């Protein structure tokens, strides 16, 4: 995609697509782009932390920051279209709470926090869309807390699968390895595999590699909630 085509596509991003042309021109003038290779840490360069960011292409993993690298938990995997860096928009002094590692070649759009705050103040509809997005992020964090406080491995796995797989009987490919899923649920790999086996034996789950199919969804939900 050339720069002109990319600009047209970025203009249609759902958070700011309702901006009038004058505000879009101001926003576009302040944007900048960074490229990251697989394995690189996104934002190793200081002031980039002070931006609202859009993962325009590629994939990246978000890990909880920890002084003990052996106990760094995977929080989520981001795909193209994900926004991040939202912690700094109204609280620039708050340090980053996560480390982001590129999984593939990544193109990241950066918007300085001061500019984004100006845009939100100037255009209430964009502010509403941004608040809607933040509400969804809160829901994600609530789900994450559910996984980590659910108790046994089977319940953690069941709650995760119920949140990720939309319907019964339809195989769903989850783009997460068993190792990463164990990290996400704060489980050892042996405990995760035992949980998968248990849900399968109970007739709730069929797994084939990265594909998962839920059976008796309502019964599974009532059994593990």
Descriptive overview:
The structure is a single chain. With 225 residues, the chain is α+β, with helices and mostly antiparallel strands. The protein is built from eight helices and ten strands. A four-stranded antiparallel β-sheet has the order 1-7-2-5. It is elongated. The protein starts with a helix and ends with a helix. The relative contact order is 0.13. The model has no long low-confidence stretch (mean pLDDT 84).
Detail the poorly predicted runs: none
Q: Kindly provide the radius of gyration, computed on alpha-carbon positions and rounded to a whole number of angstroms.
A: 20 Å
Helix/strand-derived class? alpha+beta
N-end to C-end Cα span: 46 Å
| Content of β-strand | 15-25%
In summary, what is this structure?
This protein is an alpha+beta fold. 42% of the residues lie in helices and 21% in strands. It has 8 helices and 10 strands.
